[in-house]
Amino acid sequence: MAKTPAPSGMGRKWPFAVVGLVLATGAAFVFAYRLSPAPAESLTDREARLNVLALCDAVQAYRDEHGNYQLAGPTPREVPRGGRAVPFPEDEAFHRLGFEPQDGVRFQYEVVLQESPVGEPEVSCLARGDFDADGLNSVYRVRLDSNGMTTPIEVEREGE
Asked: Which of 135, 129, 121 is nearest to 156 (CA)?
């Protein structure tokens, strides 16, 4: 039995052409995605939530090493408004804690000591911000008790 010749044109090559076309299209999408500008950072409270936890960890580490609490702030002096990042000023107390944000902050930070309802020292790590610049501050707080235990993050006027 004689073999019939393959039809003219692509013949057996068409699967390779399809795979090549898919790969070229995929590469074009990846290239276009990498060249597209990064989306604008949305104003969130992520900074405050991460930093009050880090700040309380630093306060506890300082206490473990030195035997006392290091109070600090409020820094920056004014609460940042409108969600704009401001440089975090050099501050000796925050430096001792090892808390020195580098990229600017949208919140004011402070470490205060007060007495708990049972008479023991209690540290509060605070972040204050005013995203909508209306003069009302959002306040993020983590409390650190004398046993080194922290509370969940407490938030007053979230989104202000």
From this structure: 129
